[in-house]
C-alpha cells in the first residue's frame, strides 16, 4: 500500500487543447516507496515498469515524451507549475509558471 507520505508532489501542468478536444489539469507525483507489484489493468491501459532509457523508445504520446518526462528528470526532487498549449498542427508550447527555485511572487 502506498501512503500519502510516500508521495512527493513535484509538478502541476495544465494542458490546453489535448488531442484538439480536451483540457487537463494534472498533478505529478514521485512515489518514493518501491512498489511490490503491478497495479491492476484499467480502462486507460496496462501498468508496467520501464527503465528511463526504455521510455525513450516506448510508444507514448508526444505530450508525455516532450512535456512530462523531461520535467520529471529535472524537477522530481523539487517543484514546477507549468502550462502547455497542445493545439493540433502546432508545435507543443510550454510556459513555466513557477518552480521551487524561481517562485512567481508578483
Polypeptide structure, described:
Helix content is 17%, strand content 33%. The chain has 106 residues and is α+β, with helices and mostly antiparallel strands. It is globular. The protein has a four-stranded mixed β-sheet, with helices on one face. It has a single domain, classed as Nucleoside Triphosphate Pyrophosphohydrolase (Alpha-Beta Complex), CATH 3.90.79.10.
Structural class: alpha+beta
Number of helices: 2
- Helix percent band: 10-25%
CATH names the topology as Nucleoside Triphosphate Pyrophosphohydrolase
> How many discrete domains?
1
The main sheet comes to: 4 strands, mixed
Topology order in helix (H) and strand (E) letters: EEHHEE
How large a portion of the residues is in β-strands, by DSSP E? 25-35%
Low-confidence sequence ranges: none
Q: How are the elements arranged and paired?
A:
Layout: E1 7-18, E2 22-31, H1 52-55, H2 62-75, E3 80-85, E4 93-99
Parallel strand pairs: 1-3
Antiparallel strand pairs: 1-2, 3-4
Which structural traits does this protein have?
4-stranded mixed beta sheet; 17% helix; 106 residues; 2 helices; Nucleoside Triphosphate Pyrophosphohydrolase; alpha+beta; single chain
Amino acid at each position: 500500500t502506498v501512503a500519502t507520505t510516500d508521495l512527493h508532489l513535484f509538478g502541476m501542468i495544465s494542458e490546453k487543447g489535448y488531442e484538439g478536444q480536451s483540457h487537463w489539469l494534472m498533478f505529478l507525483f514521485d512515489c518514493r516507496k518501491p512498489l511490490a507489484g503491478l497495479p491492476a489493468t484499467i480502462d486507460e491501459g496496462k501498468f508496467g515498469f520501464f527503465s528511463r532509457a526504455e521510455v525513450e523508445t516506448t510508444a507514448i504520446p508526444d505530450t508525455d515524451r516532450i512535456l512530462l518526462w523531461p520535467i520529471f528528470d529535472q524537477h522530481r526532487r523539487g517543484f514546477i507549475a507549468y502550462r502547455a498549449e497542445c493545439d493540433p498542427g502546432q508545435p507543443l508550447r510550454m510556459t513555466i509558471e513557477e518552480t521551487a527555485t524561481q517562485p512567481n511572487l508578483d
